[in-house]
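Quick one: structure tokens for this chain, please?
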Amino acid sequence: MTRANVIYLDYGEDSRFHRLRLEGISRFARTRGWKVIPLPPQKSRPCDIAGIISAFNPLGFLVERTRLDERIPARFFKRMPVVIIDPQDNDGPSRAPCITCDNAAVARAAFAELSKNLPPVYAAVPYRRRRIWSRVRIAEFSSLCAESGKKCIVFPFRPGESSEARFSRLKLWANTLPPHCAIFAVNDYTAWLTASALHACGRNIPRSATLIGVDGFDRLFDGSDSWISSVKLDFERTGFIAARMLAEQISARAAGLPPPCAARTELFGPLLVQRRESTRGSGRRDQRVIDAVSMIRREAASGLTARELAARFDCSRNLFERRFREAMGRSVLDEIINVRMETARSLLSRRDFPIGAVAAFCGFRSDRALQKLFKERTGLSLRDWRKANLL
């Protein structure tokens, strides 16, 4: 067994997060020749870690949605490189680098979407359990409301409350909201419950109230198609960045250097706002854009062009380009170039990857095209960038 394995321990609560993050991890892994081995919770208990290390001889571990200090003590990994993905409520310093959600940016995206309809008042609904990420989102959203001179009515949290009691209280609360209230629910599950409470008390969405959640699920929790607008998080890029952070630790260890700062934390944020019926009047559906972004991240390094991408969708190229720019704030070509540049930087950070092969591996038509663009974007040549960024 070669030392080209990376173990991905998934302690996540939702397989939809897992799939997208694994896509991002795999995208980075291709630049390193890694084999990514995902293992579910039932096969990655603390007592299993020693056996995993013995069986796979991994380069390192990516651990999703857990606190390393509590779920698996650091000693179980035998000083191997580890990166924590989206730790839940990590109050204290982590013993491993981590990447976590920029919850303030999430709240800002939600407020920007809801404020387009100029609501007279706002409301916010926290998660059913006490979570730091929920409190940060609510606090930032409330602050934005105050800055705009508007009131924010926050549904009060009650610890230890049963799901049935909370929903009964949510219905009573929803019935007291002023007409045309704009409601921010901290995730899609909470948004779904809030919509159910509004409907139960005869409140029409979006006529009587507008509503937005967070995550960007395509289907609701009752199995029906989602019609609730949502701040879609960039889970795929989360996996890519986490894998890059792990590569930095692996490189430092191979070179006999001290590992990068253990307390280092990187943030991931929203991809876009997925506009649906619940905020009608402030935008259009963006499913094509979301699909296009996924295709770009999978295929940009294989030579995908903006023209080829537009041809895959049942609309004119001009309309497709306009929708993409409205949703992403940049053109299709810009997104393709960004992914190619990201891949180029990842390859250049490898000591063993020849500079002359980078352009072809990233989807550029010639070495000269890459050299010119890279110089414009970074101010450095490929060779100078490698010298400045190698550990």
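The chain has a mean pLDDT of 87.
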